[in-house]
Amino acid sequence: MVQSGGHSGHSHGEEQLSDRQLVLAVAINVLLTLAQIIGGIVSGSLALIADALHNFSDAASLGLAWFARRIGRRPADKLMTFGYAQGEVVAALINLTTLLIIGFYLIVEAINRFADPQPVEGWTVIAVAGVALVIDLVTAFIVYRGAHESINMKAAFLHNVSDALASVGVIVAGVLIILYDLYLADLVITLIIAGYVIWQGITLLPRTVRLLMGAVPDELEFDRIVEFLEGQQGVESVHHVHIWNLGEHHRALETHIVPSFDSLAAFEELKLSLRARLTQRFGIAHATFEACLARDCENALVADHHPAGGRTDHDDQSDQ
After folding, report:
1. Which residues make beta-bridge pairs with 237?
2. Where are the transmembrane segments (predicted)?
3. pLDDT tens, 230-252?
4. pTM for this one?
5. Which fold has domain 2-212?
């Protein structure tokens, strides 16, 4: 009992430490963003402002991740019967949408600069980007220390590494401006940063939307799970199968089962067995089973939740 209590306290301490690191990373990135924006305005460097907006999106992402994690720890209640874990997915959708907006904004600004070039102060660009590079690396180190068992913190670490690479690109642009008066380099670096930001958003957005819509988790195969269930002793067939994620990592399943026996006690034993095997085989920790007779159930594996005839209330209203 003593060991159990000590372990629990240690885990809680690690979790709180990760939260503090996350808040510190947010604060540092916000200060860095302000410094880069001021430096970008003073120097006339759009690439520096682009890097600043990238940093700001990361600061917002870290802040939302911290806020969503705190909400996600709340237990299920009468309002949110599935709990609050989906809050992290909602935060991810907001972050990705912001990334896309920033990326396209930077492209528009770069195109405008191509049409109306502006002088850029190379030394200011290098100085500010150099400071940004150091801060990005320090922030990445802070986040990495709490990233050993947290995928959110690992993602934050990768974001900061990408920020550091963007700062390196801005420094290169500053050097080219000083040595060769190559002001075009500033715009090229801006487009590269914008393209990377958009790529991040487009790559992660589909999975985020699927999570919010209750899609089958990417790591699972619907047909394979159905085949597994129907291959278990005592299961005659399954239908109306639902497989989804509760939050980002917790998998859930709900299905109707036609048992090969009529005993309620035997069905209770079957449920316990199926839950254990689903957890072991597919990592599905939340499973709900409903017993039914073959003659009383539809044969469809996937239930049609629309009204009869496949028409929705919206369709009926549109016809009026």
Report:
1. 258
2. 21-42, 48-68, 89-111, 123-144, 156-178, 184-205
3. 999 989 889 889 999 887 778 89
4. 0.68
5. Alpha-lytic protease prodomain-like (1.20.1510)
